[in-house]
Amino acid sequence: MPAVTADTLTLPRLSAPGLGDVERPVRKVVTAPTGFEGEGFPVRRMFAGVSLADRDPFVHGDQMGEVDYAAGEPKGTPWHPHRGFETVTYMIDGTFQHQDSHGGGGLITDGATQWMTAGSGILHIETPPEALVVSGGLFHGVQLWVNLPAKDKFSPPRYQSIEGEQVSLVASPDGGGLVRIIAGDVGGFRGPGSTHTAITVVHTTVSPGARVSVPWNPEYNALVYVLAGEGTVGAKDTPVQLGQTAVLGAGDRISLAAGPRQDGDTPNLEVLLLGGRPIRERVEMYGPFVMNTRAELQQAIEDYQAGRLGVIPENALMPHRV
Fold first, then answer.
1. Per the annotation, where are the binding residues for Fe cation?
2. Where Fe cation is bound, by residue (predicted)?
């Protein structure tokens, strides 16, 4: 898992828990079912079994892979529309290419994040590059859908490319945990992601047997999703493992502990910490559209069919076939 790493002994340190800090309890743990997305790449549905109230403003989340493709097997998505939210694609292993109808695009690889605000409407494609399709190889990432409040649903589309080296890196007080802050503020350290909706997105690696306490905004909700390995969450050491999401209650810190032994393919506990200030608005979803009313969904479909969400550019990126 080569997403950006560092020597934790040389990094800035998070603060240790204070006397008045409240550790967030685990309210429930759910296991993500598996499925397929796009042209057929495997995913785990991170938020299945988690109510919208518990994950607001996140409306959808997929762990893509981890899969080691044979030559000719890598797949992505064809050109498709979005409206009303933001897509966040974080690549841990492998490479994805992105292009959209608003001029955004590029390679996403090994710790980089593509942050696309669909807003009023956009067309885009995400597909493995020709070299990866021809050779095969490891592919592992995460895609999140972050809702926009009604006032921002029709904001202009925007694209952010966040390279791996731009992510804020901090360590736990004893150096046993590496915290990568992609967006939001964690204990006074801020990630580079610019968001319409107030959220925090963090990838944390915990060494076997180590424990990490991460400061967390008490106004935000909190989810812990296990990308790899096994360990525990919360003061009562609730067990979690690959593909599980822990829904946390109120408080201002999230505690994690890695099991003393991990398997050879997964040397550490790898988790995604997610949270945000709930929007608390009605959500209506249909395919690639996230709106507030069914009438707005119908309008989005009509606008897409009429070409008002964008046009596929000339010489556009297309999926590579072998």
1. 80, 82, 124, 126
2. 80, 82, 124, 126
